[in-house]
Amino acid sequence: MADHPICPCGSTSPLTACCGPYLAGASAPTPEALMRSRYTAFALGDARYLEQTWHPGTRPEHVELEPGLRWTGLEIVAADGGDKRGTVEFRAHWTAGRTRGVLHERSRFVRQSGRWWYLDGVIDPQVTTAR
């Protein structure tokens, strides 16, 4: 199975059959699929993909990845996607050295020009933790 690693997004599918095609340029069909692929991009250190899937109206000039931060698991809490707008609430687990934490966010997505874009997210500081 070393030739087909499991996708970091939490599915049990190989990366090549899950988020891999999106990272290679295919359009994600739903806000949840885009969210999962963006998590995978964080886990793999693919800042280019994060920039390419962030809506141009809300995207920062550069996406900086935190050195030493390792994403270790994703939980989808809720996902809702209509024709033009969607939301995904998730918990993303991470480690940095001996510190472990959870990022809890509710992300917003919009469908424009035939594809889904990440707009922004609201982080829940009461659930987002480091220990």
From TrEMBL:
InterPro entries: NTF2-like_dom_sf, YchJ-like, YchJ-like_M
Entry's family note: Belongs to the UPF0225 family.
Protein name: UPF0225 protein H9651_10200
SUPFAM superfamilies named among the record's database cross-references: NTF2-like (SSF54427)
Gene3D superfamilies: 3.10.450.50
YchJ-like middle NTF2-like domain span: 30-121
